[in-house]
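Quick note —
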Amino acid sequence: MPKTALTTIKRDVAMETAKSRIEKPIDPFAKFEKLRERGGAFTAPGPADTIDQVTASLRSQFSDLGIGFAGWTLNTFVDNELGNAARSTIANQQYVGQNPTFSTVNSMIVTYDLARLGIPDGQIVVGAEHQHWTWQSAGPDRLGLNAVSYYQTLFDRRIELKVGYLRNQHEFAGAGDKVFGPSSKMLFQAGMSNNWAPTPALNLKYNFDDRLYNKLSIQRSVSPAGQYAHVSENPTGLNWSTRDAGILLLDELSYRNKPTPGVMETWLRAGAGFNNSRYTDLQHPTEATTKANSVYYVGADRQFWQSAVHGSASRGVYGGLSAMYAPPDLNRASQYYEIRLYTKGLLDSRPTDQMSLVVSNTIWSHVAVDAALAKEQLAHRDSTAISGLYTAHLAPGIYTTVGLTYINHPTSITYTPQTGHALNMLVSTSVFF
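Predicted structure written out below.
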């Protein structure tokens, strides 16, 4: 081959190589992604979806040291639109929205990558949270611990270990996903830890493959007196335990395939929890009894339609259902059923927006209902809610949700003629940084 031809070929190859480098730039957020909190079923938007889009920033400087962070503020306003007949004094408010109700939740999570110290997949997480509610029974106000944990994989990532003060709300049942309805209440009354009440726990997840896994948790229970009592007694979250709290054992078997072009997402899960805390027997509330509590649940979600846009497999239409049960002699909410229809990026012009329609039914403990009726109180045996929400992705790191929820019997078990039903308007804004 002539020398000039060889020179031309080398030049063309060099140009094509340079061109491919221009066409396929390195993702500037890749080094941030590996510093996100690990081990949870639900996480906040990634570093590319924050209000801080400047990579040569404080985030970049921290990432060079193996430190990552994620912060967010969630501000929500709820108001019953059915008029003044359902209003009450602040002291007598019985449910969110009966009077105009505002809440703010502000969180910060910091991670450290232990791979820098020769521990592959090792991670330390430290987090804090502040919350405020105009109706204290929904909160109450607190400033304290959000998480302190150590995460590690073992045996070629077959096992995932997470230990520390954990928020199992984001680890089990999909209860931390805002698309789903209020199913988390059933899990919270059984003692599950959450954003407002992190507790000491050891979680072990066994991955049969990249779709099927079993997760076990040994967790210090949230107070059996309820969420409000727990936060009031331990607002900082630093206490090892609260009064009458024992151990909650949780186990979940789950199958989940992530969507890929041409393959729809499927998520199946079933779990059970057993709690040896000192729960009050609703049949004999004045007697000092010690009874173990439990909760059982199943859930299923399926993608029914997928966007034809290449690389956007998660966009589409989904449907799902959930069912939960807890013993009626120990729990005010005994059964919970939910069906849901939701979309992700349904509109090409709004590829990151979400819409949802959720119908749920909570069946109250027949023991507690019968006790209220015996006292000649007005009581209902169930509560049904229909909720429609639209979440708009306004800008990187900024989301706004608007919606309406109709609730037949919005109070728990007992009610007054003025609180028979509600139509709550919700406006919420989330900012991630």
